[in-house]
Amino acid sequence: MMRSVLAIGAHPDDIELGCGGTLAAHRAAGDAVTMLVVTGGQNGPGPVGERRAEAETAARSLDCLLLWGRLQDCAVQADAATIAVIEDAIRQTEADVVYVHAPDDSHQDHRAVAAATVSAARHNRRVLHYRSPSTTRFEPSVYVDISAHLDRKLAALACHRSQVASSAMVDPEVVAASARHFGAQARVRFAEAFVPSRFVWDLSPPPQLPPALADMPVYQAAYRSRGVT
Amino acid sequence: MMRSVLAIGAHPDDIELGCGGTLAAHRAAGDAVTMLVVTGGQNGPGPVGERRAEAETAARSLDCLLLWGRLQDCAVQADAATIAVIEDAIRQTEADVVYVHAPDDSHQDHRAVAAATVSAARHNRRVLHYRSPSTTRFEPSVYVDISAHLDRKLAALACHRSQVASSAMVDPEVVAASARHFGAQARVRFAEAFVPSRFVWDLSPPPQLPPALADMPVYQAAYRSRGVT
Amino acid sequence: MMRSVLAIGAHPDDIELGCGGTLAAHRAAGDAVTMLVVTGGQNGPGPVGERRAEAETAARSLDCLLLWGRLQDCAVQADAATIAVIEDAIRQTEADVVYVHAPDDSHQDHRAVAAATVSAARHNRRVLHYRSPSTTRFEPSVYVDISAHLDRKLAALACHRSQVASSAMVDPEVVAASARHFGAQARVRFAEAFVPSRFVWDLSPPPQLPPALADMPVYQAAYRSRGVT
Amino acid sequence: MMRSVLAIGAHPDDIELGCGGTLAAHRAAGDAVTMLVVTGGQNGPGPVGERRAEAETAARSLDCLLLWGRLQDCAVQADAATIAVIEDAIRQTEADVVYVHAPDDSHQDHRAVAAATVSAARHNRRVLHYRSPSTTRFEPSVYVDISAHLDRKLAALACHRSQVASSAMVDPEVVAASARHFGAQARVRFAEAFVPSRFVWDLSPPPQLPPALADMPVYQAAYRSRGVT
Amino acid sequence: MMRSVLAIGAHPDDIELGCGGTLAAHRAAGDAVTMLVVTGGQNGPGPVGERRAEAETAARSLDCLLLWGRLQDCAVQADAATIAVIEDAIRQTEADVVYVHAPDDSHQDHRAVAAATVSAARHNRRVLHYRSPSTTRFEPSVYVDISAHLDRKLAALACHRSQVASSAMVDPEVVAASARHFGAQARVRFAEAFVPSRFVWDLSPPPQLPPALADMPVYQAAYRSRGVT
Amino acid sequence: MMRSVLAIGAHPDDIELGCGGTLAAHRAAGDAVTMLVVTGGQNGPGPVGERRAEAETAARSLDCLLLWGRLQDCAVQADAATIAVIEDAIRQTEADVVYVHAPDDSHQDHRAVAAATVSAARHNRRVLHYRSPSTTRFEPSVYVDISAHLDRKLAALACHRSQVASSAMVDPEVVAASARHFGAQARVRFAEAFVPSRFVWDLSPPPQLPPALADMPVYQAAYRSRGVT
Fold first, then answer.
1. Cross-referenced PANTHER family, in alphabetical order (chains A, B, C, D, E, F) (predicted)?
2. Angle at which helices B150-158 and B14-28 cross, to 10°
3. Which of the residues B1, B65, F200, F213 has the least number of beta carbons within 10 Å of its own beta carbon?
4. Burial C185-223 (b: 16+ CB within 10 A, else e)
5. For chain E, how far is it from start to end, CA to CA, in angstroms?
6. Which residues lie below 8 Å from residue F42, measured CB to CB, with a gap of 6+?
């Protein structure tokens, strides 16, 4: 019994910052998790090759599958091309749940990826927006308890050495503080917070993924070899 | 494995109108469900005794427990007394999920019960606001699929004969239309819609209620005799 | 005595879905109504030629004038070119009232047409946003009673056979349910709902259109031959 | 052909400040207008008797009917008693349109009258909130052009001599400036601005009031003697 | 050169939790600061006498003046009596800045004190709402850097021993985490966050308080003896 | 002791309309002020050369430095190029405070400049959005008292003769009325109103600008020659 989860971020490290603990919780619950990084992070500090390797290490540390969107850092538009990249990932993973940036953000790529995901996931029943350090307006109402997973989130984030070293926006101290802040709001110890675009609460246990899933390209080379399904 | 659900309404029929289908879905998933009706509906059409009997029939048709708050119709305040009534019900049921009116409503009792519940449920992890026909502002983001339960909702509502007959606000045609309207928003056939005050999504299956529950006064006379636990 | 009404949609069928009943009510009140379809709907199900013919049949069934914007489906931007197309239609029709998509929508073309119309209609006194099946956030406060016109709305929608047959977003059952849902909110039977950008309520009866109107290109070939003015 | 208009304010001068120009426009369009002042303004500057006389002079200057609610200044609650006073006025006037304070206001009576009116007018199709000098949050979307009626608004306000002389909140200079400010927003010269709770736009000319109206107590002694109907 | 600052809270410890660091920053800038505690905290954990002593110790540790409102815990109403208590404190302190609870809060007293302060401070140019652990909706846009004052905030909070020991809502770990969370939002290390009701930014240095201030009752016994002015 | 202020507008006259009085107040307080006009206003009424000269006269009348962004009127995008222009101005001026358009506006360039500034100023502690005549949604909470500076604002605006003569959006009568309207909200006579993206209130007097500032290119040719620093 498992869900298929898709987390989408504009740059390497965005997903870990926004919902890394929640992804760890999904894996602990036996769900399949795929991360889609839309650009290569060409403009951030650190060379592209290094960032790519960091993202792969981080995804491995969270035991998640990693997909790349191959768009250009700082030039993402919420247009048909970006939407197609995300639709493709939704189709490949048959996603039950989609996580993505919040729409109000000071980074133009984050805004574009959020808007493009709202378009691409128009038929999905669960689309949740996470918070980035650059998010501006954010009034969360949905939370996931990550008390048992904060360590894994911080470990995954630490894999992005080039960012932790050089970006004012990536600060583990703040990540832990925000998790405690939202935890208090959620009446747990540590939490990640979300703004739902649309969240159909499934009262029955998570669905059994169809057998055909294990044969889909996105999972064949990955989960099967790791013995997940 | 079951959750303890508490649904709160100001008058007889409010709960059925707002989340009757969701309560049926909870029962179908094996959860324990309690309805707390805060007043006797003394001012609506129909004598109090009749309304009381209607509510009991409706609760029975949904296979839910029914509690009465004994406050006065049209005179509910969001004060310490009302909060105490609701705190008491939360404590008795050890509620995992609380459903209640939306805060913006043209009925003063609905506003008061919503505000008092936000106070009483301040330590709860899941508080969801449902919509009434008199609700004014309402931007839902959480939904429950009631496609398999709309019939039971309408049947429970039909038990409130005095209201269906005389109140312009209680119209089964509108109830079904709104369920289809929100269903389309939720990407299912029929849905009930909710605004979350706070919703901690539990990724693991619903918790096993502690054995002690079956011994609590609120459940002893009720569920046990019906063989629920 | 008549108003000049302009309804704007990104694709064939958008206007009928959003405000088809209101347009019928305007025609019944003797107002002149023009529909501006910004793109040819090249990407939806059904060939372009067929969709064009469907839109023309639908406009005829509502007895409205139809203008085409000739932009490209799924590639509309809220830029100077799109704004110019809409400004042109506003000028040609000397519009008293403008209807258009709501700004928050999962379809990028809908968002772009809404934003471009807000720009183009900056001097207009009445700009009302309608709801599409893909609209996300929508808190209406203005309504039009379409109890006497729902049939015409559904008939106009049925003209878009290619969409009714193949698009999950075009479902007459949902259209009728939403009309009842909003009708209950408006305290009538069936209603269409709107979010006003700016609505100057004219307390005097609708103005007599200037005689010159009948000589303007947009109306000459159309209304005159149908004996509208 | 006329509408029945009901404007509600907590204290003498509130209605003139909030929608005096609009009431003049309604009278100019041939509509019947009733003002309901909920309290006697016992706590403001000026003796009660003087304020009562000022309100009567102002209502006469606007050629509107004046009703008094007889509640206590600074002690209004949004409870059943206040709601009953307003329901009574709605019933007596068979109101087509209801004007009242905006809900977010620094005066507790204004908040209470706004909330009580939302309750009392739950079956009405047109409820519009006006702005007071003490209103806090206010995002208007509906406007009435009062360019031809600003003088009458200022004249009606000037009747409240005790307030113009002593209250920092009643300043004709600000009233005129705000009318110009909102006029620019509405694309007219002077306007009053409103937040609609619910506004059903009637596309046909305003309804003919039923003949029975002239026989209702509220109008008999008043309009008839002035030759309005 | 100094400002007169008034911070208002419903219960002992509310002010320290919400804006204790900011009050320390005001004192460090040479401003006069008064705390008004509206009730005695009769219902919280700990006896009233003890709570009173804790509040006095905390105020002394922040070097602020302490006033008591003498209303009843859990029974505060936003009525004329509560407004009068706050008006009195504003008048006595000739407050330039007023800090108070945010309006959306799960504690009924917090809601009432926030609403009453908005009424009482209707002529004030600077009214800022702070966040409590029980605040629900809160979208801050104004911040004060308390990096140099977090220690004093935590020390003042620690004076409320009965609360730190027994209330789930008073947790120094969360207080520090939230300060870091809001600090990151404000682009400083630690911050307190505020929602402004009205904030007139004074571009010139803070005004010299009039000499007469030192003679006002509220300051005579207090600041003078401590040599503040 | 002075602040470095940067005001950003899409076209010549936007800054004067939005915050001209505030800039005068900053200059009166001894602050350095730079205006960045992002486009040449090629599409408005009046030839580009004339508009350029008008802007220079206006900046001189306010005693502010003027920078040009050299982007194209009506074609501004919130993309990396626009962000780079603004980042460059922030860097050159070492801005303490940034003023820019409000995000919701009927002019596409205003929307784009607002969004690009939110991106470019992501590390700034004070970003305030001003209102334009074309702004749509605007709920201000921060104000600057311009009672002593309204004349200078109107004089600066009058320098833009081509706009005052021909644009319906540039009307000194409305500018003065809005200043009075917002002044009443701010409890002063005339005010400009702002929506803060982020405003860290500095309780200590404004910082002494570093000596190096006078050597930066942006100030060398300008302020020094005018003897400002």
1. N-ACETYL-ALPHA-D-GLUCOSAMINYL L-MALATE DEACETYLASE 1, N-ACETYLGLUCOSAMINYL-PHOSPHATIDYLINOSITOL DE-N-ACETYLASE-RELATED
2. 140
3. B1
4. bbbbbbbbbbbbbbbbbbbeebeebeeebeeeebbeebb
5. 9
6. F48, F72, F73, F74
Range with the poorest average pLDDT among A222-226, B33-37, C175-179, F207-211: A222-226
pLDDT at A169: 86
**Could you tell me if C30 and C208 are in contact, meaning their C-beta atoms sit under 8 angstroms apart?**
no
Q: Which of F137, F173, F174 shows the shortest C-beta gap to D139?
A: F137
Integer Cα distance of A181 and A183 in angstroms: 5
The CATH H-level (homologous superfamily) assignment of domain F4-203 is LmbE-like (3.40.50.10320)
Which residues in chain C touch residue B177, judged by CB atoms under 8 angstroms apart?
Answer: 176-178, 180-181, 184
pLDDT score for F229: 31
- Token digits for A10? 């504009």
For residue C157, the surrounding DSSP H or E stretch is helix C150-158
- CB-side neighbour CA atoms (13 Å) of E6: 29
Helix (H, G, I), strand (E, B) or coil at A80: helix
Touching chains A and E? (3+ Cβ pairs < 8 A): yes
**Nearest-CA distance from A19 to chain B in Å?**
13
Q: What is the pLDDT of residues E102-138, one digit of tens each?
A: 999 999 999 999 999 999 999 999 999 999 999 999 9
Rounded to 5 degrees, what angle do the CA atoms A86, A43, A100 make?
30
pTM of the model: 0.93
Which one of F173, F176, F181 has the shortest CB-CB distance to D178?
F181
**Strands F32-39, F65-71: parallel, antiparallel or unpaired by DSSP?**
parallel
Contacting residues of F for E145, CB less than 8 Å apart: 200, 202
- CB-based contacts of D128: which residues, under 8 Å, 6+ apart? D97, D98, D99, D100, D142, D194, D195, D196, D197, D199
Give the burial class of A215: count Cβ atoms within 10 A of its Cβ; 0-12 exposed, 13-18 middle, 19 or more buried.
exposed
> Which long-range contacts (C-beta less than 8 Å, at least 24 apart) are formed by F162-169?
F162/F44, F162/F45, F162/F46, F162/F47, F162/F50, F162/F51, F162/F54, F163/F12, F163/F13, F163/F44, F163/F45, F163/F46, F163/F51, F163/F54, F165/F45, F166/F45, F166/F46, F167/F44, F167/F45, F168/C123, F169/F132, F169/F133, F169/F134
* Structure token pair of residue E132: 């409590």
Q: For residue A46, what pLDDT is reported? A: 85
